[in-house]
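pipeline: protein-struct stage 2 | run 1193 | Glycosyltransferase
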Amino acid sequence: MTVVFTCLDADTLGGIQQVTHTLAQGLAERGHEVHVIGLQRAATPFRYVDRPLYHHHVISNRPVTGGLARRRADRRLKALLGEVGPGYAVLTSPSVVARTARLLPGSLRPIGQYHGSYDHARDCWHLASIRRHYPELDQAVFLSEDDARLFSEHALLPNACALPNPLAAWPGAMSVLESPRVLGVGRLEGVKRFDRLITAFARSGAPEPWELHLVGSGAELPRLRAHARREGVDGRVVFRGAVPAAAMSAEYLAASVVGLTSEYEGLPVVLLEAAAHGVPAVAFDVSGGVRSTGAVLVPPGDVDAFAVELGRLVDDEEERRRVGADARARAESFVLDHVLDKWEALFAHVER
């Protein structure tokens, strides 16, 4: 079959992009014809797959906001979509659904994804867009059963279902959980709230030589450096910058705890990757997806409670091993082959 994934930007460092390329490569390895389309070019492209077996397209070299440029870009997109064989178009966000669904040929069955949580959608424009556009699609896909239920009830979606994010690979080794290192992974942007993780680390009582390593790049770097100085831990917070996807396994193997302090999350890949490596995690309880990972959960935004749980794992190696082993057992259900089976079953369901 043919599967087309369309993203606003397919090559930026981010969860939607990582999941899209992982699914695309996995489906291509199973013999499907797969296309990944970015509506606009990334300012700093990040390579997720070294030898992609799928086709990759970029519609516009820069963002388009309307008028003539938008019409030209839409014509290019419509022509490209008309050239691929019959199959399924996976539209990866509300903005992509709103722009692209009307351009699809009748040979492509539309499936709308949402990579956030219901709470996130409710607090911004996403929920209104999902209510307006997703009921017209063949399927609306969310990241957890909890979120699919909430969207079904509150957005009146008759077509909601749950499909989790996949793990790109299952690691051959687990962390020994002896390194004095807390790890945070993600874009250094406001919604990720790494300032909270820095504060929680400072308040956790983690003794030297424990350090907090932050993997990722972004506009918040200067502010986060200043925040670490104010919290008195600037010498123990290490900003690692972006790390190639192929090198991330080594980061988890060198960590003993992972922290996630985002404002919003759907089903964060960082928690799945940490769990697969047997690394325990502390996270805010912001979605059904987060709850499914086996992370230690604290109330959203409660930095003091986060610091307590972080300190508990730092102090207790046996507890780290217990939580990490439980999370690894849960992570087996997110192995790529299992998730691909669910996608193929979804395609078969849509076809019926």
